[in-house]
């Protein structure tokens, strides 16, 4: 159950990456374990704790379930934790990622596995449905900021997040794909990973039946958070494009293209804000503001500026006493 335990040899490993969200983890794990038991043979569940203080260890220990393991990953950032999950899944065929604040619906795991096997897909992603700790205001609702995509099962996709993602390691490992730790504290390592997966000719598809429910805390149901997230996603979009360009000679053209796309969003967002103000439309103004923030992030990312959404607090170092 801890990092000293022997790795499992189950064919399916569900990885839950966590960082100082013990209450969310304690609620999510029983539901993840229910899904692990719904397939035959049962899947194993691995908690990868990115907190150097090991805050999730006691949550795992209290459950005392044989197919639940805990490991600590000391390198800061979610990319390192995701890579640790890949390493811990050395003997597994399938590695499934889910966030520590998400609740899988019944049939979630079976849907991912059946879709991967029936379509010979290297990766399968599913829908994330948001629920709210506090009721969002008109600006948030009108902007549709927490409405995520949903597609028919089997639809090909070019990019995916790890909040609801299955990987067929037998197909992926020969390509030596890893999560880029340069994106560990900024976000975007899953975007880069999944885009590389597709570039290597591997198949990534959607499973509409594999639903997880995301519980959105009150701190995220705010204009400030939405706009910061939009800036970050624009920022990482440009950085991912630069990481994928392959050669220094192409970097200038990629940078120019990202700048132009950012400028288009700045202009389009401004037009939408003005039109929304004239029409009295809160929704138009909200979406316009987000488009402006995303465009600004794209331009910043094109020229190397990073936005560390997941930056960690720095430890306080006390000065040594100086003898008189």
Could you please describe the fold and organization of this structure?
This protein has 324 residues and is of the alpha/beta class. The chain folds into two domains: 12-219, Alpha-Beta Complex (Spore Coat Polysaccharide Biosynthesis Protein SpsA, Chain A); 223-302. Helix content is 44%, strand content 15%. The protein is built from ten helices and ten strands. The chain has helices at 22-36, 57-63, 78-88, 108-119, 138-143, 169-172, 189-199, 223-244, 248-279, 282-302, and strands at residues 12-18, 44-49, 68-72, 94-99, 102-104, 123-125, 128-132, 164-168, 204-206, 212-216. The strands form two sheets. It has a seven-stranded mixed sheet, with helices on both faces. The chain has a three-stranded mixed sheet with strand order 5-10-7. Strand 1 (12-18), helix 1 (22-36) and strand 2 (44-49) form a beta-alpha-beta unit. Helix 8 runs antiparallel to helix 9 (248-279) and helix 9 (248-279) packs antiparallel against helix 10 (282-302). The protein starts with 11 loop residues before the first strand and ends in a 22-residue tail after the last helix.
């Amino acid at each position: 159950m801890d990092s000293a335990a022997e790795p499992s040899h189950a064919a399916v490993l569900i990885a839950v990456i966590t960082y100082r969200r013990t209450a969310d983890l304690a609620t999510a794990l029983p539901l993840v374990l229910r899904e692990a038991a719904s397939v035959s043979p049962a899947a194993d569940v691995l908690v990868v704790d990115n907190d150097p203080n090991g805050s999730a260890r006691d949550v795992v220990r209290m459950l005392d379930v044989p197919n639940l393991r805990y490991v600590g990953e000391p390198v800061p950032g979610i990319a390192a934790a995701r890579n640790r999950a890949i390493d811990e899944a050395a003997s597994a065929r399938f590695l499934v990622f889910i966030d520590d604040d998400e609740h899988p619906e019944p049939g979630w795991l079976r849907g991912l596995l059946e879709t991967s096997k029936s379509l010979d897909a290297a990766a399968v992603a599913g829908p994330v449905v948001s629920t709210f700790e506090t009721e969002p205001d008109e600006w948030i609702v009108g902007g549709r900021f927490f409405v995520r995509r949903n597609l028919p099962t089997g639809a090909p996709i070019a990019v995916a997040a790890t909040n609801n993602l299955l990987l067929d390691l037998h197909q992926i490992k020969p390509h030596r794909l890893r999560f880029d730790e340069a994106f560990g504290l900024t976000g975007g390592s899953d975007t880069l990973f999944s885009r590389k997966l597709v570039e290597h000719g591997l198949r990534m598809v959607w499973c509409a039946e594999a639903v997880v429910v995301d519980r959105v805390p009150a701190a995220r149901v705010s204009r400030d958070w939405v706009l910061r997230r939009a800036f970050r996603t624009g920022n990482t979009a440009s950085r991912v494009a630069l990481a994928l360009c392959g050669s220094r000679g192409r970097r200038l053209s990629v940078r120019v293209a990202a700048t132009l796309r950012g400028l288009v969003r700045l202009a389009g967002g401004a037009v939408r804000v003005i039109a929304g103000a004239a029409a009295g439309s809160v929704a138009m103004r909200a979406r316009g503001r987000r488009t402006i923030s995303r465009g600004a992030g794209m331009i910043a990312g094109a020229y190397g500026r990073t936005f560390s959404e997941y930056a960690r607090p720095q430890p306080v170092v006390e000065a040594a006493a100086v003898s008189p």
